[in-house]
Amino acid sequence: MAKPMKQCNHAGCRQLVPYDVRYCDKHKHKSNAETYHKRMYGEHEGRYQQFYKSSQWRKLSRRFLENNPICVKCYQDGVIRKADVVDHVIELRDDWSRRLDESNLRSLCYRHHNQKTRLAREQREQQTK
């Protein structure tokens, strides 16, 4: 059975694409470029993206993961799981000055990092309302 089709999400484009695809081949690149531009040059986002690409952060996070290879949250739950991400306990948005402070870092797996980030984002959105 064939997948259901829908129109491309680009405004005015009538090209049919599979239901689980957002853009046709013609507009896929344009949407990726717009997302990249917003992320890199947005009002405040660019500063954070530039930091995470810096050699200082890459060296520090690599060394920190080598020294702390186990997810802190999983270990507290009695499970030993490899850490994938170096997380800022106090986020950069809340305190920029602690971005390279090792006492503000911890090793987390993707699952726990995504949970923590989602909760922090939700709290920030509630404070702005």
TrEMBL record:
A Pfam family recorded for this sequence: HNH
Keyword list, A-Z: Endonuclease, Hydrolase, Nuclease
Coiled-coil ranges from the UniProt annotation: none
One Gene Ontology molecular-function label: zinc ion binding
Domain of life: Bacteria
Keyword hit for Nuclease: yes
Gene Ontology CC: cytosol
Keyword Nuclease among UniProt keywords: yes
SMART domains documented for this protein: HNHc
InterPro entries in alphabetical order: HNH (IPR002711), HNH_nuc (IPR003615)
Residue ranges of every copy of the HNH nuclease domain listed in the record: 60-114
Family, similarity comment: Belongs to the HNH nuclease family.
Name of the protein: Putative HNH nuclease YajD
Taxonomic source organism: Levilactobacillus brevis
